[in-house]
Protein backbone atom coordinates (compact mmCIF):
# COMPACT_ATOMS: atom_id res chain seq x y z
CA UNK A 1 0.00 0.00 0.00
CA UNK A 2 1.43 3.35 -1.06
CA UNK A 3 1.53 6.19 1.43
CA UNK A 4 1.51 8.65 -1.47
CA UNK A 5 -1.35 10.71 -0.05
CA UNK A 6 0.53 11.17 3.20
CA UNK A 7 3.61 12.12 1.18
CA UNK A 8 1.65 14.73 -0.77
CA UNK A 9 -0.02 16.22 2.29
CA UNK A 10 3.15 16.57 4.33
CA UNK A 11 6.30 18.10 2.99
CA UNK A 12 9.31 19.87 4.29
CA UNK A 13 9.39 23.58 3.79
CA UNK A 14 13.08 24.21 3.99
CA UNK A 15 13.86 27.38 5.73
CA UNK A 16 17.58 27.23 5.67
CA UNK A 17 18.04 30.86 6.25
CA UNK A 18 21.28 32.64 6.52
CA UNK A 19 21.61 32.94 10.26
CA UNK A 20 23.29 36.30 10.11
CA UNK A 21 23.92 38.49 7.09
CA UNK A 22 25.99 41.57 7.73
CA UNK A 23 25.90 44.65 5.57
CA UNK A 24 28.16 47.68 5.82
CA UNK A 25 27.86 49.83 8.95
CA UNK A 26 26.94 46.73 10.97
CA UNK A 27 23.37 46.35 9.63
CA UNK A 28 22.13 42.80 10.21
CA UNK A 29 19.35 40.41 9.27
CA UNK A 30 18.82 37.43 11.57
CA UNK A 31 16.78 34.36 10.72
CA UNK A 32 16.50 31.02 12.48
CA UNK A 33 18.45 28.27 10.68
CA UNK A 34 15.74 25.64 10.70
CA UNK A 35 13.72 23.35 8.49
CA UNK A 36 10.00 23.31 9.14
CA UNK A 37 7.55 20.51 8.44
CA UNK A 38 4.28 21.94 7.11
CA UNK A 39 1.09 20.16 6.08
CA UNK A 40 -0.30 21.08 2.71
CA UNK A 41 -2.83 23.95 2.98
CA UNK A 42 -1.40 24.99 6.37
CA UNK A 43 -0.42 28.62 7.00
CA UNK A 44 3.16 29.41 8.02
CA UNK A 45 5.15 32.43 9.15
CA UNK A 46 8.88 32.62 8.44
CA UNK A 47 10.63 34.91 10.89
CA UNK A 48 13.12 37.69 10.18
CA UNK A 49 14.61 40.21 12.60
CA UNK A 50 16.82 43.08 11.51
CA UNK A 51 18.96 45.81 13.00
CA UNK A 52 20.07 48.89 11.12
CA UNK A 53 22.22 51.90 11.95
CA UNK A 54 20.40 54.87 13.47
CA UNK A 55 19.15 57.42 10.98
CA UNK A 56 18.49 54.93 8.20
CA UNK A 57 15.26 53.35 7.02
CA UNK A 58 15.52 49.78 5.76
CA UNK A 59 14.16 48.56 2.44
CA UNK A 60 13.27 44.95 3.23
CA UNK A 61 12.98 42.01 0.84
CA UNK A 62 12.03 38.34 0.81
CA UNK A 63 13.64 35.92 -1.67
CA UNK A 64 12.97 32.28 -2.47
CA UNK A 65 15.53 29.84 -3.84
CA UNK A 66 14.25 26.65 -5.40
CA UNK A 67 16.68 23.71 -5.69
CA UNK A 68 19.29 24.27 -8.41
CA UNK A 69 17.91 27.76 -9.17
CA UNK A 70 19.01 31.34 -8.52
CA UNK A 71 17.20 33.25 -5.76
CA UNK A 72 14.01 34.98 -6.93
CA UNK A 73 12.44 38.08 -5.37
CA UNK A 74 9.12 37.33 -3.70
CA UNK A 75 8.33 40.81 -2.43
CA UNK A 76 9.75 44.11 -1.27
CA UNK A 77 8.52 46.26 1.60
CA UNK A 78 8.24 49.33 -0.64
CA UNK A 79 6.95 47.74 -3.85
CA UNK A 80 4.05 45.32 -3.57
CA UNK A 81 3.04 45.61 -7.25
CA UNK A 82 5.91 43.50 -8.55
CA UNK A 83 5.00 40.26 -6.76
CA UNK A 84 5.39 37.40 -9.29
CA UNK A 85 2.08 35.62 -10.07
CA UNK A 86 3.30 32.47 -8.29
CA UNK A 87 3.26 34.34 -4.98
CA UNK A 88 0.27 36.65 -5.37
CA UNK A 89 -2.63 36.18 -2.96
CA UNK A 90 -0.77 33.69 -0.75
CA UNK A 91 2.48 35.47 0.21
CA UNK A 92 2.59 38.62 2.32
CA UNK A 93 4.88 40.24 4.82
CA UNK A 94 4.20 41.79 8.21
CA UNK A 95 6.51 44.61 9.25
CA UNK A 96 6.76 45.81 12.85
CA UNK A 97 9.17 48.75 12.89
CA UNK A 98 9.21 48.97 16.69
CA UNK A 99 10.33 45.35 17.12
CA UNK A 100 12.35 45.46 13.86
CA UNK A 101 10.78 42.34 12.40
CA UNK A 102 9.73 41.55 8.83
CA UNK A 103 8.02 38.16 8.77
CA UNK A 104 6.93 36.32 5.62
CA UNK A 105 3.43 34.84 5.78
CA UNK A 106 2.43 31.99 3.47
CA UNK A 107 -1.25 31.11 3.28
CA UNK A 108 -2.34 27.60 2.30
CA UNK A 109 1.12 26.14 1.67
CA UNK A 110 1.55 23.88 -1.36
CA UNK A 111 4.27 21.41 -2.25
CA UNK A 112 5.93 23.86 -4.66
CA UNK A 113 6.54 26.25 -1.72
CA UNK A 114 9.23 23.89 -0.46
CA UNK A 115 12.40 25.95 -0.91
CA UNK A 116 14.97 28.10 0.87
CA UNK A 117 13.77 31.56 1.97
CA UNK A 118 15.96 34.61 2.54
CA UNK A 119 15.20 37.90 4.21
CA UNK A 120 17.41 40.82 3.13
CA UNK A 121 17.69 44.55 3.65
CA UNK A 122 19.13 47.56 1.95
CA UNK A 123 19.35 50.87 3.80
CA UNK A 124 17.54 53.85 2.32
CA UNK A 125 19.69 56.90 2.89
UniProtKB/TrEMBL annotation:
Keywords: Adaptive immunity, Immunity, Immunoglobulin domain, Receptor, Signal, T cell receptor. InterPro entries: Ig-like_dom, Ig-like_dom_sf, Ig-like_fold, Ig_V-set, TCR_variable_region. It comes from the Eukaryota. SUPFAM superfamilies: Immunoglobulin. Residues 27-125 form the Ig-like domain. One of its GO terms (biological process) is adaptive immune response. Residues 1-26 form the signal peptide. GO terms for cellular component: T cell receptor complex. PANTHER family: T CELL RECEPTOR ALPHA VARIABLE 16 (PTHR19367:SF18), T-CELL RECEPTOR ALPHA CHAIN V REGION (PTHR19367). This is Ig-like domain-containing protein.
